[in-house]
Design a protein that fits this description.
The protein is of the alpha/beta class and 170 residues long. It contains eight helices and five strands. Strands 2-3-1-4-5 form a five-stranded parallel beta sheet, sandwiched between helices. Helix content is 49%, strand content 14%. The protein is globular and about 40 Å long.
């Protein structure tokens, strides 16, 4: 587990797991949002791909973030030796979004780039994004990689604990 990509819906637990794994494995963590949201409106795709490629030149990395429609998805999936996909129930994700709202209201989250402050709980756009999130397609793409990479699909909170226990045993 030297090159890990963590995918999943907003507020599913990607950042928390990435930070825990980074600490346990002593691997630097990169948050896609910190790169993408450096500029207002987000980086252009070419600049985003370039910055992410620079991160991936390192021998070890953990990259967490969603962006399933980004040009970087194939890059992240192909370069990683371990892929972790959060596939949690929507109600749990919505609950986590609400908790995050109260924790970071009117503050910049540590995993975000720029000066993007948490302003609203679940907005209509976030709700639509969650409902239309391409989890089935993403799951298929991730499982295709399971013959050559370690793949973990987190479908419950217990699965997170299992992964952390497994990593701690190594």
């Amino acid at each position: 587990m030297d090159k890990i990509t963590i995918l999943g819906l907003t507020a599913s637990g990607k950042t928390t797991l990435a930070n825990k794994l980074g600490e346990i494995l002593n691997i630097p963590v990169t948050h896609l949002d910190q790169i993408f949201w450096k500029e207002e409106g987000g980086l252009k795709q070419d600049a985003f791909v370039s910055e992410l490629s620079n991160v991936m030149k390192n021998d070890k990395w953990i990259i967490e973030g969603s962006m399933p429609r980004s040009k970087t998805l194939d890059l992240r999936l192909s370069e990683a030796d371990t892929i972790i996909l959060f596939d949690l129930p929507l109600l749990l994700v919505f609950w986590r979004q609400i908790k995050r709202f109260f924790k970071y209201f009117n503050k910049v989250r540590p995993d975000m780039g720029g000066e993007n402050k948490q302003k609203y709980p679940i907005t209509w756009n976030e709700f639509k994004y969650a409902i239309n999130y391409p989890i089935k397609d993403l799951r298929v793409r991730v499982l295709e990689k399971s013959t050559t990479k370690k793949v973990f699909i987190i479908k419950s909170l217990k699965d997170e604990v299992v992964i952390l226990d497994w990593v701690n045993e190594k």
